[in-house]
Design a protein that fits this description.
This protein is an alpha+beta fold and about 650 residues long. The chain is built from twelve helices and 39 strands.
Length: about 650
């Protein structure tokens, strides 16, 4: 695709990208195509007597595939055309649940299937047009799967049998989490939340008894001692545990459901033990028997895995070579989880509960040897004013030696209620190998730093996040880690909004890049899906009450204030940030005499999934940054 006068000509990208991203003759340099093909992700681990199952991305096809650990090693299950993905709440999660004979999955069409381990056959269970399923949990006692069903703007907790018979277990609440089942199968727990709240702001814990016919009765809400977000209910035997932040951090609590619902704390540090529940079925804590637990703690953005003994109360940190952990599941003498590290691809880990020794049983391929890889350095940026919080991030030094202080790429993560983690990101490595320093910043509003820090973005989106990105640029430049005259800022989705607001409000940045970024919050508010329908009013305040704030923080209305170069990337099928948002922004900039670059990918949605398109985006962005760097070095000129 060519870009003419800041606008794409509309030619199909896939026809020309292979020539654009051919491998470079220097094999020590990661090409754009290699960077994108390297990023195989694994997740949604589920363990049962039948073994260990997980999902794995296929970068070439842009879909998730089902894998199982056999006696011969990892094997793929199901037919070749089986893609697995839940779209409940738009972000899915909980798209598989293992049983003793196979695994329940959600297909790309959002219908439930059962994949038999015996013969690999895939059996359809539901024919429910217009509905989506997610948050799957196996009910072994009744040979069925529990799920969140979403249809016609409403959600339900349902059960689906092996014959495809569907029963409604609970309805009437706006949103449901993935449920949990007690050890004896007689109790079910879940969390819920109501509009306009997001689940990390306010949510509620529920339980119900499971009757002989499999239906629920005596449903009851268990209020937290103060306002809180609760998530990830789990039973240790028949004792109910949950993560709640009513004391400022997502910490583990035991709830006495046999009496008046007293909340009992356990010995745990003032750290978040989970992250924002954008997806269903997250698991950051897991009972391991005899009162022992495995739990994740987030320390300055890094995930740590800890095993605590029910007998001694002692806790030890394990798997120290990894910086984030998901999908904790225990079976027998082992804990299983997905581990993510700085120089390796996602790994399926098996951890001996007695010794704490971790073993990679699938994945974990060495993405780049350490001499070639830029490793994340934890940085803390002090507050400028009394009462403000310091912010943290991860800094990557360039791997291309030059005599000059390197240019800097600041990355604003999406969400915005999300976080950056110190895990392998091939695109960061791509920049570092081309002489750029990179910093991923957990600005105020990020998760993993407690409730107060997470809620600091309320009414201040486009304000405190931008200030924190500026503060990060100044801090790194003041220590000589980056050239303050060559600072670029980029972001995806809401991170693209932060980048645009930074380019509008500051002259600090040399150039900016928006990847399917929000340019018109009011238009997004009118068109967004149900899950996030109240989110923008929380981020910016009600437009009826704060019209000036919405006016001030709408990039589209201030396009003329962007005086530095901008590059945009947009998918033609994006249903989250609709294509018109980016098109209108670039047209407004051109009307103001600017010359933005726009690269259009007609076959992409929100978040580019196709390997060739991702590679093309990297190449064009590198060309853009190189062009607008004040000191583009000679060596980097030949790297592409």
């Amino acid at each position: 695709m060519r870009t003419i006068h800041g606008f794409s000509s509309g030619v199909n990208n896939s026809a020309i990208i292979p020539a654009l991203v051919g491998h470079h003759h220097d094999k020590t340099v990661l090409s754009a195509y290699e960077a994108c093909s390297a990023h195989v992700q694994r997740g949604e681990l589920s363990v049962s007597p039948a073994g260990v199952f997980w999902l794995e991305t296929d970068p070439a096809r842009g879909c998730n595939t089902l894998w199982h650990l056999s006696d011969q090693g990892p094997v793929r299950l199901g037919p070749d055309d089986l893609g697995i993905r839940s779209r409940v709440n738009g972000y899915g999660g909980g798209a598989l649940a293992a049983t003793d004979s196979g695994v329940f999955v959600v297909g790309e069409d959002q219908q439930l299937r059962f994949v038999s381990l015996a013969d690999g056959q895939c059996h359809s269970l539901t024919d429910d047009p217009g509905a989506a399923y997610g948050g799957l949990v196996s009910d072994q006692y009744r040979q069925r799967v529990l799920a969140v069903r979403e249809a016609e703007g409403k959600q339900q907790l349902v059960a689906v049998s092996m014959l495809g018979e569907r029963s409604v277990l609970h309805s009437g609440l706006d949103f449901y989490s993935a449920p949990a089942v007690s050890a004896d199968g007689n109790e079910v727990a879940w969390t819920s939340w109501q509009l306009p709240d997001m689940p990390w702001l306010r949510s509620r814990l529920w339980t119900a008894n499971c009757s002989e016919d499999g239906l629920l009765d005596q449903g009851r809400e268990w209020p937290t001692p103060s306002e809180a977000s609760v998530q990830q209910p789990v039973f240790d035997g028949n004792q109910l545990w949950v993560l709640s932040d009513h004391e400022g951090w997502w910490q583990p609590w035991h709830i006495d459901t046999s009496g008046e619902g007293a909340w009992h704390a356990t010995e745990s540090p003032a750290r978040d033990h989970g992250n924002a529940p954008w997806q269903l079925g997250e698991s950051h804590h897991c009972p391991t028997g005899s009162g022992s637990w495995a739990r994740v703690r987030y320390c300055n953005g890094t995930g740590e895995l800890w095993l605590s003994s029910g007998e001694t109360g002692e806790a030890i940190r394990v798997a120290r070579g990894f910086g984030d952990f998901r999908c904790l599941q225990s079976a027998g003498e082992h804990l299983y989880c997905i581990g993510r590290a700085a120089t390796r691809l996602d790994a399926v880990l098996q951890i001996d509960l007695e010794t704490g020794q971790a073993r990679t049983i699938a994945g974990g391929e060495e993405a780049m040897p350490e001499p070639r890889a830029a490793l994340p350095l934890d940085i803390e940026i002090p507050a400028l004013n009394p009462g403000e919080a310091s912010i943290h991030g991860f800094f990557y030094t360039p791997k291309l030696a030059t005599p000059d202080v390197p240019p800097l790429i600041l990355i604003a993560h999406g969400g915005p209620t999300s976080a950056a983690y110190p895990v392998f990101n091939p695109q960061v490595q791509y920049w570092c190998q081309r002489g750029f320093a990179v910093a991923e910043i957990n600005y105020r509003g990020s998760t993993g730093f407690g409730r107060e820090f997470r809620l600091a973005l309320e009414g201040r989106w486009g304000d405190v996040d931008v200030a924190d990105m500026e503060r990060a640029a100044d801090h790194l430049a003041s220590f000589g880690l980056a050239d303050g005259r060559r600072v670029f800022i980029q972001g995806r989705s809401s991170g693209g909004y932060t980048a645009l607001m930074a380019m509008i409000r500051s002259r600090r940045f040399t150039a900016g890049a928006s990847m399917f970024g929000v340019t018109d919050p009011m238009r997004l508010r009118a068109m967004t899906h149900r899950f996030e329908s109240g989110y923008l009013d929380w981020l910016l305040g009600s437009p009826e009450k704060y019209p000036e704030r919405w006016q001030e923080r709408t990039p589209l209305l201030h396009a003329e204030r962007i005086t530095a170069p901008m590059i945009f990337f947009q998918g033609g099928q994006d249903r989250v940030v609709v294509p018109e948002q980016t098109r209108a922004m670039t047209e407004a900039m051109k009307a103001a005499g600017r010359a933005p670059e726009l690269h259009w990918f007609e076959d992409e949605g929100h978040g580019f999934r196709r390997q060739a398109n991702q590679a093309g985006m990297l190449e064009w962005m590198f060309s853009f940054y190189r062009k607008h760097s004040q000191k583009a070095n000679d060596q980097a000129e030949n790297l592409s």
